[in-house]
Design goal:
Layout (H helix, E strand, L loop, with lengths): L21 H9 L14 H21 L35 H13 L17 H4 L3 H9 L1 E7 L2 E7 L8 H12 L11 H10 L9 H6 L1
Antiparallel strand pairs: 1-2
Helix pairs in contact: 3-6, 5-7, 6-7
Length: 220
């Protein structure tokens, strides 16, 4: 220049002039975990176990209780006939389904008199070999409908308790079925009790509000 001085101009900055480990910086970046993405998380191992167990259980259940998968289920076996549904005619009452006496007895009576009819010593009299249950059918019907209280002797043993009335909880058919079951089980061989008999006695004793006593029943 005109003044004879050198220009005080610095050289441009260059990265290669510094001692920088570029590869080391990249290695540090690669060690960082990637940012999580919502919706792509792996489910826990116990969830897989539960799902697989449910699949196996469902397959077993369908195979055990689902019946057969095929047209042969609609075919009748040899010697089998189609059962015609009973249809009531106009003006007729619909048919009454049969009542399972054993089921009614086990549901209502077995708690006290036991499923084997032996009762509970000192508390509830047995029905097996009992003249009260296997004698005149009107006697047990009255007892079931309106209950029994006071001393009663069965098979040489005296019991003194209270049997509740079941007339309000049991239909005529249920009373008849339960008594028929008791009168024909555990060595008893008395005739069946009909629902018509229960209905008749229910109507005849409809005004009764207290339990029977053996003296009342035997005095009639």
């Amino acid at each position: 220049m005109g003044n004879g001085k050198k220009n005080d101009i610095q050289a441009p900055y260059r990265a290669e002039n510094e001692d920088v480990d570029i590869y080391g910086l990249h290695r540090q970046a690669l060690r960082e975990s990637p940012d999580p993405v919502e919706g792509l998380e792996r489910p826990p191992w116990w969830l897989w176990v539960i799902c697989i167990s449910l699949i196996f259980w469902a397959g077993f259940y369908i195979g055990r209780y689902g019946g057969k998968f095929g047209p042969e289920v609609h075919l009748l076996s040899e010697g089998e006939t189609v059962k015609q549904a009973s249809v009531s005619k106009p003006g007729e009452s619909p048919p009454v389904a049969a009542v399972d006496g054993a089921e009614v007895y086990n549901r209502v009576c077995a708690a006290c008199h036991q499923q084997n009819g032996q009762g509970v010593p000192g508390a509830f009299p047995p029905l097996a070999g009992s003249g009260l249950i296997a004698g005149d059918d009107k006697l047990p019907v009255k007892i079931v409908l309106h209950g029994l209280q006071g001393p009663v002797t069965v098979s040489g043993t005296t019991y003194n308790g209270v049997m509740p009335a079941w007339g309000g909880q049991m239909s005529d058919e249920e009373v008849a079925a339960a008594l028929t079951h008791a009168r024909s089980s555990w060595g008893n061989s008395a005739p069946e009790v009909s629902a018509e008999t229960v209905k008749q006695i229910r109507e005849e004793t409809s005004d009764r509000t207290t339990n029977w006593t053996i003296k009342e029943l035997e005095g009639e």
